[in-house]
Design brief:
The chain contains 11 helices and 13 strands. It is α/β, with parallel strands linked by helices. A 6-stranded mixed β-sheet has the order 1-2-3-4-5-6.
């Protein structure tokens, strides 16, 4: 697979397609050329021997080396974006920049004292997930550690901070929902947006409720969509799929999509009290692979939490500690 693709990119910017797992298959990494001859790397992708080789080939093909990397900028902490940053930092000596909240999430998920591989399956069990599937989730979570090792030393980016990348001024826009502390970067003069996974052109970014993180992720995401959608964007460069020009329309579509999903869940629970897993299966089916099941389950719980906040449903606990949801009377 080619690491670059023959699509129109602005002068001084390259998109690299770095391999990741099914179903997305690749993540967009961006190389921005600086006036001093160095480059900025945005979201280098997950770490494994194959992606290390992809980066070596890509840099060689562009006439560059790791010593030409001036900074590594991360939109968020997920392994397909953060993964290679610590390894690349070791090879280049370049600073790695991300939001403080995103670095906190990375430590919680992947740090040496992280317990997410046990806490998350137990959380799902409490919401009705069968034991065999919860065990699969635990093994699945352990598999990410190699993709993000080593974690980088980080210099923080604040919301509203101006960064100069590729010879342009970009303003950091911090939003939540898909990932707490997610950063998009807006270039007001050229009306461009590096949007990571905050807004994707064809798929809906996953919104996950999970322990020890944002307690209202869907609310955070909807608020972020309103904020991003208010910006004048002519061209957007996402973390997945191709660059696109209908950015504002896409934010409007995503807002409507989540309202429709909330309505479907409210209707399901109005018909009969249900646990989170039952609601998940009613929406997404029962044939999902482990990775997609984790996304679907946490997305379901995020929406149920928003229905609670809006006063449409309530969460109650059984004697065995499990939870179920019913219509608010």
């Amino acid at each position: 697979m080619k690491r670059t693709e023959a699509i129109t990119m602005p002068e001084g910017m390259h998109r690299l397609q770095i391999t990741m797992s099914f179903p997305l298959r690749w993540v967009n990494s961006y190389v921005l050329y600086e006036p001093d001859g160095r480059i900025t790397v945005i979201d280098p992708g997950p770490r494994n021997p194959g992606t290390e080789q992809e980066w070596q080939e890509a840099l060689t093909g562009l006439g560059l080396s790791y010593q030409d990397i001036g900074q590594i900028v991360l939109t968020h902490h997920h392994p397909d974006h953060l993964g290679l940053s610590g390894w690349m930092q070791q090879k280049s000596g370049a600073p790695v920049r991300m939001s403080a909240r995103s670095r906190q999430e990375a430590e919680c998920m992947w740090g040496p004292s992280a317990t997410i591989d046990t806490v998350l399956p137990e959380f799902y069990r409490q919401h009705g997930m069968p034991e065999d599937k919860a065990i699969q989730i635990r093994e699945h979570m352990k598999g990410f550690v190699s993709q993000i090792t080593p974690l980088p030393e980080v210099t923080f980016i604040e919301d509203g901070e101006e960064l100069f990348m590729g010879g342009k001024r970009w303003v950091a826009v911090e939003t939540g929902g898909h990932a707490p502390g997610h950063l998009s970067f807006y270039a007001p003069e050229s009306r461009e947006m590096l949007c990571g996974d905050a807004v994707l052109p064809q798929i809906s970014p996953n919104i996950s409720l999970q322990p020890e993180s944002d307690a209202q992720p869907l609310l955070s995401y909807l608020q972020g969509l309103h904020r991003l959608g208010s910006l004048d964007v002519e061209k957007a460069y996402p973390g997945h799929r191709n660059p696109f020009s209908h950015f504002t329309d896409r934010t409007t579509h995503l807002l409507a999509h989540h309202e429709e999903r909330l309505q479907k869940m409210a209707e399901h629970i109005a018909q009969r009290p249900s646990n989170g897993y039952d609601v998940c299966v009613s929406l997404f089916g029962d044939r999902l692979g482990t990775h997609q099941l984790r996304f679907a389950m946490s997305e379901t719980l995020a929406h149920l939490q928003e229905l609670i906040r809006r006063g449409h449903i309530v969460q109650e606990q059984e004697a065995d500690g499990s939870f179920f949801f019913k219509k608010y009377n």
